[in-house]
Each structure stands twice: as structure tokens, then as C-alpha cells.
Amino acid sequence: MFNKAQTPMSIPYDRQKSNYTHMKILLTAPYENVKALRELESLSDEVIYRSWKPHGRAYNPSELLAMLKETGADGLISEHDEITEEVLRGNPQLKFVGVCRGTPSNIAINVATELGIPVFNTPARNAQAVAEMFIANVITLLRNTIPAVSWLEGKNWGEGAHTSYLEFKGNELAGKKVGMVGFGAVAQHIARMLVSFPAEICYFDPYYNDANTDFRKVELEELFSSCDVIGVHLPVTEETTGMIDKKYLSLMKPGAIFVNTARATVVNREDLLEVIESAQIRGAVLDVFYNEPPDAIDYKMILNKRVLATPHIAGATHEVEDHHAFIMNNNLREFFHNGNKSIQQLVNKGVIEFVK
């Protein structure tokens, strides 16, 4: 590792180019991509890599406090660890905290801002992963793939019969109208992929207007009443909690599919269960639930034959960790090395005047 006693001529070439910042970084987020880890090392004095994955769970506040004290780190890059007020107030020397997630819900943001600690996130790290699973599972439901597989495994294929061809005939996604409730990075990624099917795309988002003329902005009532597939892509806020309820779900067409790979609590659970159990819609693709692990009501949806349910894995790919590593590295390069204080990935923008 480079230390301050070395002359510039002895610094590795990649570090000379990086114009790195004098920081010792405790890294608990997975950085299994060797290139990304070496890049991070070139951007700092030292990286102490202690991924939470071999530990078997995210680090709790006591463990973080102990590691920060032991290492003397003045930078922290985390993924799921509990970065509480106690952790932050116990480490006012931190020059930044990086959270390798789209929504940094595991850190006391207000306290970080008060202490002058910039917090960076990695939005869109899982956009490709979620987009692929969204489309794959919608097609799986449209094509009746799961019941067809069960039928085959049940040895129901009779000699000369065309039962499967008739019983499991489904629909194509091409030509369908797909509506996005919320049009952030993930929804936009899905939309760009669907255009090639082709599919008609419309979206509802009061805070965003897309310049792409292939995507049409509409009100929620039109979106729910006219679309064949409706995807929810909302964060949990005071405004969005329970926002999708009977008022909108009751507008859906009988052949429509409801998809939620974002957050369960933005949908009224009882209202969604009602439209599923009463067969008011064709079905639902659900990757998130009110309770994880699920409770009895969640399982009513999970076990319903009209639902394709997965255990919150839409963003679970090995490549997501590569994405978050390179996004975070770029955050540090832009903010500290290039002096770009207006990067999108700075979560607490009010911290600028206090930056160390």
C-alpha cells in the first residue's frame, strides 16, 4: 500500500492517474470484482475489505463501531449494515459513507447531514436484473409456463393427445400496453427493453417528464384502466404508502397482469388480495410482501394460482454487485477528485456546505 512517505515517482501508475483522496476506507459491501476493488484502492490511501457476506449477515451497530475504531477508517462503504445515529456520532471523522443500494434506508441520513458527512448511493445498480426478471416473469405468466411444467411432471401427456397445446395456450407480450407507476431508473430500463418487442409504454410520475416520444405520460386512472400489464416502481414515502388501492385496482381489465417488484407497502394489501381472489384480473407477479418472512395474508397471495411469487430476488444477481462497485467508485472519483458536488448519487445534498 502507498503511504505518505513515498515519493510520487514510486506511486503505481494507475494511482498517479487517479489523483486519489487521502482516505482510509472500511469496505463492508461486497466488492468481488477484482478490477473494481483495485480501482477503489487507487482512489484512496488504504482499503480494509471486510465484506458482510462471509459474516453471514449485515453488521450491527456495535460491530461497525468496533471495526471503525480498530481500523481508524475515515470512509465507509456499506450495503446492508445498520449505520445508526450511534455509529455516526461515534465517528464524526468520516469523510463520507457510501451505501451500495438504490434506497439507503439503513443509514440515519439526517444525522449524517448534521455531522457534515456526505452519503452516496448506487441508484440503478439492479436495473438490468429487475428488468430481466420483470419481463421474464410476465412472459411466464402470459404463457402459462408453470402449470404446463406441473402438468408435464405429473405425467399427463397421453398418446396422440393435443391437450397441452390447447390447455396451456397463452399470449405474447408483443403488442401489449404496459404501464409504469413511477418512472425511475428501473422502470425506464424495462421500458427501453419492451419497446423492441414491441410494446406500447405509458407511465405515471408527477416528478418526471421523459423526452422519449415512445413513452407517454398519463394519469393513474387511464393507466390502470387501459393497460394490459401494470408495473409498480415506487419508493416508500408518506405520499406513496398505500397509494395503490381499490380505487385504481378496480379499474384494471379482466385480462390484466399486476406486477410489483418494488415495495409491498405502496399497495393496499387487502384490496390487491380481493381482486386476485375474485379473479377480477388475470393474475399478479409479486416479488415483495408486506412481511418478509410472509405472514398468513401474504401467503394467501403467494399460494394463489393466479400469482407468480418470488422471494424478493428480482435484484439478486452476481452482476448487481459489480454494478454497485463501479457506480460507487465513480461517485468518489467525481465528488472528491473532480470536485463535482452536484452528482445525482449524493443523497443528502444539504451537506455540501459542511463537506470536510
Automatic annotation (TrEMBL):
The keyword Transmembrane helix does not apply. The keyword Oxidoreductase applies. Pfam families: 2-Hacid_dh, 2-Hacid_dh_C. Residues 39-340 form the D-isomer specific 2-hydroxyacid dehydrogenase catalytic domain. GO terms for molecular function: (S)-2-hydroxyglutarate dehydrogenase activity; NAD binding; phosphoglycerate dehydrogenase activity. GO terms for biological process: L-serine biosynthetic process. Residues 136-314 form the D-isomer specific 2-hydroxyacid dehydrogenase NAD-binding domain. SUPFAM superfamilies: Formate/glycerate dehydrogenase catalytic domain-like (SSF52283), NAD(P)-binding Rossmann-fold domains (SSF51735). InterPro entries: D-iso_2-hydroxyacid_DH_PdxB, D-isomer_2_OHA_DH_cat_dom, D-isomer_DH_CS, D-isomer_DH_NAD-bd, NAD(P)-bd_dom_sf. Keywords: NAD, Oxidoreductase. Transmembrane segments: none annotated. Belongs to the D-isomer specific 2-hydroxyacid dehydrogenase family. This is D-3-phosphoglycerate dehydrogenase. It comes from Sphingobacterium nematocida.
